[in-house]
Amino acid sequence: MQNRAWRVLGLWALAAGLWGGNPGESHPGYPLFKAYCWGCHHQTAEAFGPSFRTIASKRTPEQIMAQIADPEHTYRSLGYRRNSMPAFSDLNATQLKALTDFILSFKEMK
Ligand code: HEC
User: Mean pLDDT, to the nearest integer, of 8-17?
Assistant: First the structure.
């Protein structure tokens, strides 16, 4: 019984650590980010792809939206030598906008 209580407490602390530190969870772009991007991009840490903070610091909304929808046609203009990102051409305009806003919300963060 006591063991179980510790386990529950441990899980709770883990969850708080994972979720508590991430700003912007109430943002409409957040669930899309978790579903489609999080495997390769993180908010403020570099992962397989650049962090959203890095992207936000140097790109316009147009560049970001174009890259999400059709990276095969944008990677060169963004300075990459090849494309490693899948196209998310099934996202609708509202979803693209939400994701782009979410990425740009990391612009001011230090
Ligand atoms: C399979 C891994 C992968 C997934 C999934 C992925 N990306 Fe990427 N993304 C990359 C990599 C790697 C790059 C860097 C360019 C390259 O090497 O192709 C990149 C580049 C980008 C860039 C341009 C970076 C710059 O320099 O401005 C944007 C914007 C971007 N990703 C947004 C997204 C969004 C939004 C999603 C989710 C809808 C997503 N990516 C999903 C791997 C991924």
Answer: 52
